[in-house]
């Protein structure tokens, strides 16, 4: 019997190894898998390359992963936001690497990786420092830059509901990078608010088919990043 639901956060992140590439979902607070990230900190994995939209807020979630010196390199679009202080400070000290990628390009690089497309051309970043050292081609009089698809060893994603097969339903914009990150990872690890019986989910509502998901863990009462940041919480507690 197919059973992708695991019993604990520890079991969910088991096997994430030092030096792994990990995609982490979220668009600011929306869709950020706080509990999975904290479990990853507890696991002790280090020297990670993390692919995410931003670098987290305060000292919880992704920002806490960075603050605990578990991340060697960030690949992201927004390394600095209103409540991000950890990454900017470490970057200024030269203690963490950054690969800056335009947001649309980041999404397409992940999608391409999941679809088995090794590279594609895009006009984004032409005539900017981000295009330096990359192949350029002219199509119909317009210049494009070659960008490579991204794949990861693991992805940490937050969804709303799942069944034991790993089929996922998201909560509105909390979907963000989740579907493509599940497709582009060798092992997609997903936290959901509710695990339902097989056959309960309307197939027309399923966004990520279970074939792209390897592990699911139920977190009935997930933390809200904004509340933790406002309370000045720091992980580990």
Q: Helices, strands, pairings?
A:
Elements: H1 9-12, E1 21-24, H2 34-43, E2 48-51, H3 61-67, E3 71-76, H4 86-92, E4 97-100, H5 103-115, E5 119-122, E6 136-139, E7 142-148, E8 152-162, E9 168-169, H6 178-183, E10 185-195, E11 215-218, H7 225-230
Parallel strand pairs: 1-2, 1-8, 2-3, 3-4, 8-10, 10-11
Antiparallel strand pairs: 5-7, 6-7, 8-9
Helix pairs in contact: 2-3
Describe the protein.
Helices cover 22% and strands 26% of the residues. With 237 residues, it is an alpha/beta fold. The chain has one domain (19-116, 151-222): Glutaconate Coenzyme A-transferase (3-Layer(aba) Sandwich). The strands form 2 sheets. Strands 1, 2, 3, 4, 8, 9, 10 and 11 form an 8-stranded mixed sheet that branches. Strands 5-7-6 form a 3-stranded antiparallel sheet. α2 (34-43) packs parallel to α3. It is globular.
How would you summarize this macromolecular structure in one to three sentences?
This protein is of the alpha/beta class and 237 residues long. The chain has helices at residues 9-12, 34-43, 61-67, 86-92, 103-115, 178-183, 225-230; strands spanning 21-24, 48-51, 71-76, 97-100, 119-122, 136-139, 142-148, 152-162, 168-169, 185-195, 215-218.
Q: What number of domains? A: 1
State the fourth-level CATH superfamily.
Glutaconate Coenzyme A-transferase
Please outline the major beta sheet. 8 strands, mixed
Overall pLDDT = 97
CATH architecture: 3-Layer(aba) Sandwich
Shape: globular
H/E topology pattern: HEHEHEHEHEEEEEHEEH
The DSSP helix count reads: 7
Distance between the termini: 38 Å
């Amino acid at each position: 019997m197919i059973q992708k639901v695991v019993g604990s956060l520890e079991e969910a992140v088991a096997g994430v190894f030092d030096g792994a590439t990990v995609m982490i979902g979220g668009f600011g607070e929306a869709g950020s898998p706080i509990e999975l990230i904290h479990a990853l900190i507890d696991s002790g994995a280090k020297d990670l390359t993390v692919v995410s939209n931003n670098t987290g807020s305060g000292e919880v979630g992704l920002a806490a992963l960075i603050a605990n010196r578990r991340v060697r390199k960030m690949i992201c679009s927004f390394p600095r936001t209103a409540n991000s202080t950890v990454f900017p400070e470490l970057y200024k000290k030269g203690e963490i690497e950054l690969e800056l990628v335009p947001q649309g390009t980041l999404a397409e690089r992940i999608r391409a990786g999941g679809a088995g497309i090794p590279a594609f051309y895009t006009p984004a970043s032409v005539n900017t420092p981000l295009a330096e050292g990359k192949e350029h081609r002219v199509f119909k009089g317009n210049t494009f830059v070659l960008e490579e698809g991204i794949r990861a060893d693991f992805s940490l994603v937050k969804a709303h509901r799942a069944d034991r097969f790993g089929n996922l339903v998201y909560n509105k914009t909390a979907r963000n990078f989740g579907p493509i990150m599940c497709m582009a990872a060798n092992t997609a690890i997903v936290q959901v608010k509710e695990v339902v019986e097989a056959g309960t989910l309307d197939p027309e509502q399923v966004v990520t088919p279970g074939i792209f998901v390897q592990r699911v863990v139920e977190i009935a009462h997930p933390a809200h990043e904004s509340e933790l940041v406002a309370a000045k919480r720091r992980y580990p507690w």
